[in-house]
Amino acid sequence: MNVADAARSQAIALAAVLECAILVDQLARTGAAPPEEMRALTDSLFRVEWDAVEDVFGGVHNLARGLQQLEAMVAPVPGIEQGPVLRYAMSLLHLGKRLCGDRERLAIIRSRLQHTGLGSGHCATSHDELAASMAAIYQDTISTYRLRIQVTGSAQYLQDERVAARIRALLLVGVRAAVLWRFVGGNRLGLLLGRGRLREACRALRRGP
């Protein structure tokens, strides 16, 4: 994989992390998020075979907001107020690093996803059922790490079980995207030193073919 291809793959994975962070923030503040965006992200957990990183997320078009956020964040002068979205994204990247070195938890997560039976029939499963299953996996695995993501927003929505489940489901997707980012060569030093390449990759991805 050449430098440009690596930057492209890493930009897509980072955009997925940010897309999850954006939707977590939106759910925490408003109690709602676009169902099609949620489904595109949750479906990604069941795509274990892929030729290109965008295949995991059903295409780059499903990561439009994440790409926009990433491009703004790596600009010479950041153009978006980042707030909790950046905090969630950085926490997801940290948890992704932890999970990469934790074969036991990785095996548990894979087994739990397979055990739900959603790997082959999840398209027929309701969004709430899917979110509840993924939230339980997140609680039993990722939430047991010392670092726990503190989601801020409206208490009304954060105390709603369906909203909380959707948030945890997105956090699980975000951690998987962070693992994927490392799989395609991403790391913290490269993120700091490769901002220009990431910016160009974002611009190319947003322009389309």
Question: In summary, what is this structure?
Answer:
This protein is mainly alpha-helical.
How would you sum up the global shape? globular
Mean pLDDT: 90
- Specify the helix fraction band: 55-70%
Tally of individual helices: 12
The largest sheet is: none
Total number of beta strands: 0
Text of the CATH class: Mainly Alpha
- Structural class, from helix and strand content? mainly alpha
**Would you give the CATH topology?**
YcfC-like
The domain tally reads 1
CATH architecture level-2 label? Orthogonal Bundle
Please report the distance between the alpha carbons of the first and last residues.
19 Å
CATH superfamily: HflD-like
Low-confidence parts? none
Walk me through the structure.
This protein is mainly α and 209 residues long. It has one domain (3-207): HflD-like (YcfC-like, Orthogonal Bundle). Helix content is 70%, strand content 0%. The protein is built from twelve helices and no strands. Helix 1 (3-30) packs across helix 12 (195-207) and helix 8 crosses helix 10 (161-183).
Tags for this model:
single chain, 209 residues, mainly alpha, YcfC-like, globular
Furnish the topology, listing elements before pairings.
Blueprint: H1 3-30, H2 35-43, H3 53-56, H4 64-73, H5 83-100, H6 103-115, H7 118-121, H8 127-140, H9 155-158, H10 161-183, H11 188-193, H12 195-207
Helix pairs in contact: 1-4, 1-5, 1-10, 1-12, 4-12, 5-10, 8-10
